[in-house]
Amino acid sequence: MRHLFCPLGANHYGIRKRRGSQLLAAQSPETGQHEDLQTRLRNAGPWFHNLRIHGVETAPDHFLGDYPYVKWRYLSEALPADLAGKSVLDIGCNAGYYSIELKRRNAARVLGIDTEELYLNQARIVRDELGLDIEYQHCSAYDVLSIPGQFDVVLFMGLFYHLRYPLYALDRVVQKIKPGGTLVFQTLYRPHTDEGAAKPVEPDYPFWEQEIFTDPTFPQMRFFEHRFSGDETNWWVPNRPAIEAMLRSAGLRIDAHPEEETWLCTPVAVERRGKYLQQLEFEGKLW
Ligand SMILES: C[S@@+](CC[C@H](N)C(=O)[O-])C[C@H]1O[C@@H](n2cnc3c(N)ncnc32)[C@H](O)[C@@H]1O
User: Fold this and answer.
1) What spacing in Å lies between the alpha carbon of 113 and ligand 1's midpoint?
2) Is 209 exposed, middle or buried (0-12, 13-18, 19+ CB in 10 A)?
3) How far is the CA of 158 from the centre of ligand 1 (A)?
4) 30: pLDDT confidence band, cut at 50, 70 and 90?
5) What is the mean pLDDT of the chain?
6) What does the DSSP 8-state code read for residue 250?
7) What is the distance in A from the centroid of ligand 1 to the CA of 174?
């Protein structure tokens, strides 16, 4: 199954992996209903998101610990507590952890998209169990322009590096953010250091420049022909300066970095001369 592996090792978060059954039941005595639920959740696996459904955990043995709570606990503080009236697009939603959390913050509309039926099925089971009004749709990050309208909050998390055409997708994704809206962007990066993050990028470099090509703090993205972390869809691993350079280059302003792999951005220059950057690029007229 693809995408079961995620970027960082559990040790990175200082979290000890829990051992136990694949699905962890609540401590309280199980009712027949609980057993039913456990069976249904087990049959819908394997799970990448650890969700708690009526006391049952879906991925208690996740190699990153309590995932994605380990990220959400920081991200949650950076997002508005009340999203009343706001719309959310969760790209690569998986089993819907973030969709659920944002719906719980009163978002008027939450749409989660993914290309894996396994995960969409999980997301729908969980949504129905929790009685939440969340839409899930089979749709690729590359096809977001087929979704009508724009969204106040767009999540593009844990997907960039899984794509062979990451900037193509990012340049589409930014078109789905309302003016003044927020992109929540998360990606794996290596090496895991802040070095160079704040280093300014020069407006130009001479043709015979050598040094920057061996400077680890210069923006760079490594390509994996076969696998990274056992996953054949982990194509690209950027360093942190590259992530920030690519976000800026896509017309985004970086507003916050609430979690080590997560950035909050606002679209500020995604259009030029009345056209999106991607459209100009396709026409060969970006510059
Ligand atoms: C590592 S998981 C990240 C899940 C979630 N966004 C998170 O951050 O926890 C990557 C997810 O992207 C989905 N995915 C892979 N390729 C996709 C594509 N082209 N368009 C939309 N989703 C895709 C996978 O099925 C998987 O659910």
Assistant:
1) 9
2) exposed
3) 6
4) low
5) 91
6) T
7) 17
For ligand 1, which residues put their CB under 6 angstroms from it? Answer: 3, 6, 48, 68, 91-92, 94, 113-116, 119, 140-142, 157-159, 162, 186
| Domain 68-282 superfamily per CATH | Vaccinia Virus protein VP39 (3.40.50.150)
Instruction: Pick the residue whose CA is nearest to atom 11 on ligand 1.
Output: 92
In this structure, are residues 189 and 238 in contact, taking their beta carbons and an 8 Å threshold? yes
The residues spanned by each domain of the chain are: 68-282
Report the separation in Å between the CA atom of 11 and the middle of ligand 1, taken as the mean of its atom positions.
23
pLDDT tops 70 at residue 12? no
Average pLDDT of the segment spanning 197-217 = 92
Looking at the CA of residue 118, tell me the nearest atom of ligand 1: 25
- Rounded-to-integer distance, Cα 142 and Cα 230, Å: 24
Q: What is the pLDDT at residue 158? A: 98
Q: Which of 63, 64, 83 is nearest to 72 (CA)?
A: 64
pLDDT at 28: 53
Percent of the residues in the chain that have a pLDDT greater than 90, as a whole number: 84
Tell how strand 177-186 and strand 151-157 pair up: parallel
Q: Report the C-alpha gap between 79 and 206 in whole angstroms.
A: 42
Per the CB < 8 A criterion, the answer to whether 100 and 130 are in contact is yes
Query: For ligand 1, atom 4, which residue shows the shortest CA distance?
Result: 94
Ligand 1 atom nearest residue 97's Cα:
9
Looking at residue 39, its amino acid is: T
Condensed to tens digits (0 to 9), the pLDDT of residues 111-150 reads: 999 999 999 999 999 999 999 999 999 999 999 999 999 9
Q: Which atom of ligand 1 is nearest to the CA of 6?
A: 1
User: What is the end-to-end Cα distance of the chain in Å, rounded?
Assistant: 41
Give nearest CA residue, ligand 1 atom 18. Answer: 140
